Request: fold
Amino acid sequence: AQSVTQPDIHITVSEGASLELRCNYSYGATPYLFWYVQSPGQGLQLLLKYFSGDTLVQGIKGFEAEFKRSQSSFNLRKPSVHWSDAAEYFCAVGLTGGFKTIFGAGTRLFVKA
Amino acid sequence: DVKVTQSSRYLVKRTGEKVFLECVQDMDHENMFWYRQDPGLGLRLIYFSYDVKMKEKGDIPEGYSVSREKKERFSLILESASTNQTSMYLCASSMGQDAYEQYFGPGTRLTVT
Reply:
């Protein structure tokens, strides 16, 4: 069955430090891959997406993610975290040939001064 | 910009009441979705619709129904609300015939007492 795993329920980083959020998926084909961010009390906003081509994708707010087919991973990175990045982050897999998207359980990011 | 709006941000209902959650999108998207979001479980798909009057069950449709009479509007109905339906409900829309990125509304936090 298709699934998305975000191993870290929450992560705390210092402002200015680098960030990596992990995401692994299980799917038989190459999926569409997404990272969304949810600020408190808000809906989800798309950070970046991967459909095909260059495996390193750039997103909004200085985020990037790398697709590694051999590891079935799509990790999110940011070189220098800002306090405003504190939010919950969701990795998602879009199943090709259909409408369905599967979301991970989310990783909550805390940023300390 | 795509705009997805939901009729209420917060809603308190009593057990056994019939509850309507409304969602409207303004970008002529074919597809609309209803999710519920619970801590540690991520987003779970309740129902989706890929065209007017068309609907498909998601992963957790029990206790819910939907209606899509117009392309821009997708309603979620709780026929007889129960306390285990207390949750955050998110509506989303997307274009095309594949699992492309979704655009989310701000969510409705429903409490059933």
